[in-house]
Amino acid sequence: MAQNTDSWYEADARAAEYYDQIEAGTDDIQFIRSQIEGLGPLRILEPFCGTGRILIPLAQDGHEIVGLDLARHMLDRAKMKIAELPDEVQARITLIRADVIKDEWPRDFDVVILGGNCFYELATPQEQEGCIASAARSLKVGGHIFVDNDHMEGDLDEDWARIDPEMKMKELAILANGVRLLGGCQTIGCDIPGRLWRAIRKTVIQFPDGRTLEKEYIQQKHPVSIPEVRGWLDAHGFVIECYSETPTRATHWARKRA
What we know:
Elements: H1 13-22, H2 27-36, E1 43-47, H3 55-60, E2 64-69, H4 72-82, H5 87-90, E3 93-97, E4 109-114, H6 125-138, E5 139-150, H7 158-161, E6 168-174, E7 180-191, E8 196-206, E9 212-221, H8 226-235, E10 238-245, E11 249-256
Parallel strand pairs: 1-2, 1-4, 2-3, 4-5
Antiparallel strand pairs: 5-11, 6-7, 7-8, 8-9, 10-11
Helix pairs in contact: 1-4
């Protein structure tokens, strides 16, 4: 399987609302701010920008931001937030609906952000490395890349390798106006040596009036390892300048070599 061509974010605008409920952290934003402090207004590119959690605060800091994302509902929610900002901040933000795997990224940036665990939206290590390569082309010499993702070392975790006999559904959230959001996942295959996991995913949105919206799709993931990310960075001309690691998360800040 190559590219994941569908996602639960496209089920309904309420999926983007749920994303904002579960992704509200600011540690990554503070880390980026600490690395670019005192460098003046920068041109920043954020593929997988989602609803603007990272790019909006950086635009408020005075930086020029371009966000890329394929999920229409995520971009619509980002636009709604941006419309509430002062005019001068809005003028610093450009949102582009784009397929970051197939489409060419814009160029001449000081910083590229690959945050929000975006590698886990991709189906293969080739696609993940391709994002590093695209970032290198988009950056000025001396520019920086931020890569922040969960990591898995060693063999594919047994929880990922266990085939599910049936779909497991659970309630994810109660959204605005009493709308219920449910999600399901059924592992249908794995490639243990290749560290690939495949599953059927299902999103169900239940409305108070009894209407139900369902979306089902197949998704593949490749949980990255720290040596993989470091190897890709080195292969595409980056020098790691700052690094942090927890048992589940790894963050790299790297500079593009001349």
